[in-house]
Amino acid sequence: MISVIGDRINPGFKATRALVEGSDLAGLQALAAKQVEAGAVALDFTLGPRGKSDPAFLADAIRAVQNAVDAPLCFDYPDLAVQRACLEAYDPRRTPIINSLAETRWEMTELLKIRPCRTMVMASERLEGGAGRPNRSAGEIASTGKRCALRLMRENGLAAGDIIVDVSVSALAADTGGLNRAALEAIGRLGSDPELKGIHISGGLTNIGQQLPPKAADGSDLKRQLERAFVTVAVPLGFDTVLGTPWHSFEPLSEDNPVLVQFRHILTLSGTDVMRAVRKLYRPA
């Protein structure tokens, strides 16, 4: 069964941005409750730049949301100081999730000394020769995810079940380099690795439909079906955690679903062939 970490407490969404800019704590509480009621097992939490510039509001927002729901918060900041402020404001009786830990930001493991935390590791970037490098192949993604997970278990004492490896889902419309194909292959490698038994594998599904029109060629909801298409392919490989909108369905599509059929075809392509095939998703034949 797939678990959903709700992604809506993020000013990247226009409605949430209005709540953050208006200091609307009651609105944030309602948004948190709506996600939990829709099935979210945890809530991703970021206030964008205001989380860094206004620590008092950050703390108030965290306390307000945790007073509204019991679901753990997943603090989504690639910044040690902001993460520390989040942990200080969070109820010490609860276990949060640190999002955006990466091999290139390994100093964030210092947070694990403050209190027990689960972690979400970004496998999309690696440390090589002292510099950060983007991961583009399945081998790079999987090896980075494995390396980080094993370090967390061996050096920091985390249980496998407290580690979520995020493989990064890319916008399909611009994926001429096969990043989604690489992510799916990496999921298979991570999910079948006996040394990683028990870890969780995730991806942010809202990304996949970016830059695409809302409707498929048959008039159905294109973006929601693409999210489900990714899940349909990924879950049998070991993918078990969605970072997404909880009231969207993440049930697998039937194998004859036109969007799934075309998605599988797109995964075999590269370059401009991808763009031509993507257009067929929303342009009637």
Question: Explain this structure to me?
Answer:
With 285 residues, the protein is of the alpha/beta class. The chain has a single domain, classed as TIM Barrel (Alpha-Beta Barrel). The protein contains ten helices and ten strands. The strands form two sheets. Strands 1-2-3-4-5-8-9-10 form an eight-stranded parallel barrel. Helix 7 links the parallel strand 8 and strand 9. Helix 6 packs across helix 7. The chain is globular and about 55 Å long. The protein starts with a strand and ends with a helix. The mean pLDDT is 97.
Distance N to C terminus: 36 Å
Number of strands: 10
Low-confidence stretches: none
Q: Estimate nothing, just give the exact number of structural domains.
A: 1
Rough outline = globular
Tell me the CATH superfamily.
Answer: Dihydropteroate synthase-like
CATH architecture: Alpha-Beta Barrel
CATH topology-level name: TIM Barrel
Roughly how much helix do the residues carry, as a percent range?
A: 40-55%
Main attributes of the structure:
single chain, 285 residues, alpha/beta, TIM Barrel, eight-stranded parallel barrel, two-stranded antiparallel sheet, 10 strands
